[in-house]
Specification:
The protein has about 220 residues and is mainly β. It has strands at about 1-5, 10-15, 20-25, 40-50, 55-60, 65-70, 75-80, 85, 90-95, 100-105, 115-120, 130-135, 145, 150-155, 160-165, 170-175, 180, 185, 190-200, 200-205, 210-215. The chain has a 7-stranded antiparallel β-sheet with strand order 2-3-4-11-6-9-12, with no helix packed on it. The chain has a 6-stranded antiparallel β-sheet with strand order 1-19-16-21-14-13, with no helix packed on it. Strand 7 (about 75-80) and strand 8 form a beta hairpin.
Amino acid sequence: MIFVQRAEERYRGGDPAAGIETRHALSFGRFYDPDNVRFGAVLACNEERLAPGAGFDEHPHSHTEIVTWVVEGELTHRDSAGHATLVRPGDVQRLSAASGVRHEERNDGDTPLVFVQMWLAPLVSGGEPSYGIVRGLTDAAPYALPAAGAELHVRRPAPGERTAVPDADFLYAHVVRGRVELAGQELGPGDAARITGARGLELTARAAAEVLLWRMAG
């Protein structure tokens, strides 16, 4: 079964006057929809756009796996555990909030910053916060997130290229750029597909594309 959410159907949030524009795929903050709370382990998939100098001041999180994928620009991350990192396109950043952590995210550069931030529910609550970053994730090596029973796969097919999609009880696909066909649906930038019982699927690029795929067990 597949459910497609178009880019224009996302909840519009953020604070445009402060240089922050957000597009929420699932219920988030004041955008509450009891029928759109989560899919598998995915609790949020937010497209964020920060103008130069804009950002999110230090704020708390707990019991959440926070994974960030930068599309354009550089993200400055700082947290209460002492990490200070620049996250660039192609990097995967993970912050396990566990029993509690505080962090801030900013665009300290002079060009716009675009990133996708995904929140996943951990299998076990509590514990100590932890942090990690992988520089330049490749299509061949998925990023394992065992704390949430999930894997992040990236696909960057060339126009006309067909590529396999991982089998999954729950598969969440987010199109970062380009146009693709997946399970009989054409998807463009900002579109997402939620597929249950994904088996033997392929993704076909209609234009050069970048797609994030979460593979999750039931």
